[in-house]
Amino acid sequence: MNDIILQTNRLCKNFKGQRAVHNVSLTIRRNTVYGLLGPNGAGKSTTLKMLTGMLKPGSGEILFEGKPWDRKVLHRIGALIEAPPLYENLTARENLKVRTTLLGLPDSRIDEVLDMVDLTNTGRKRSGQFSMGMKQRLGIAIALLNHPKLLILDEPTNGLDPIGIQEQRELIRSFPERGITVILSSHILSEVEQIADDIAIMAGGVLAYQEPVVPGQHLEDLFMEIARKHRKEGV
């Protein structure tokens, strides 16, 4: 169990009687990139929001480092879900200063995370003037401030150009070497396939596949087979 940082057991969530997530049991290995794939509406974001405390599970269990999840573990989890939480009239450094002040962290941590995401030389440029890729990296820097052991990223390459996607890919792949486990949610198979150690596929709110990446595997064929099956069955 020491190599497992997070598990969910039969996690469920309904909205107004409609099933969004049903009996999802994830197993996330420490210091890996875990790719959570699925078409839009598969339940990926709902699952991640439960892992970060943004939503309360309807039923099931979340274990972090072998212990039941509670809000105390949030200081060990960083997350970027939906749009980066930026003050667009502030610089990158000023955005981070707001957070270090709230978290009681030293200013030296600002320089550390700016270096990690390659935003050290943005100077007085306001974050509202950043490219989409730079905004995403600043959002990741904010998520990294509290020295998380687990980093959760929901669709981090959305809206990025090819250069931004390549930079994001290299950044994410570097985290396990720093002792940071990554859960990466996406519907872009090619991106996840290049950086993930383990892959899970959700469809219709259920976990349909979860295995280590196999070299030469035809992930697209597997994905389409699973997506079509669950669409046909209406689950």
TrEMBL record:
Q: Which intervals hold domain ABC transporter? A: 6-229
Protein keywords = ATP-binding, Nucleotide-binding, Transport
User: Cytoplasm: is it a keyword of this entry?
Assistant: no
Recorded hits in SUPFAM superfamilies, A to Z, give:
P-loop containing nucleoside triphosphate hydrolases
The Swiss-Prot or TrEMBL record annotates one GO molecular function as: ATP hydrolysis activity
- List where this protein forms a coiled coil: none
Q: Which Pfam families match?
A: ABC_tran
Q: Which InterPro entries match?
A: AAA+_ATPase (IPR003593), ABC_Gallidermin_ATP-bd (IPR022501), ABC_transporter-like_ATP-bd (IPR003439), P-loop_NTPase (IPR027417)
Q: Does the keyword Hydrolase apply?
A: no
The family note in this entry says:
Belongs to the ABC transporter superfamily.
**UniProt protein name:** Lantibiotic protection ABC transporter ATP-binding protein
| Native source species | Paenibacillus faecis
Lineage in the entry? Answer: Bacteria, Bacillati, Bacillota, Bacilli, Bacillales
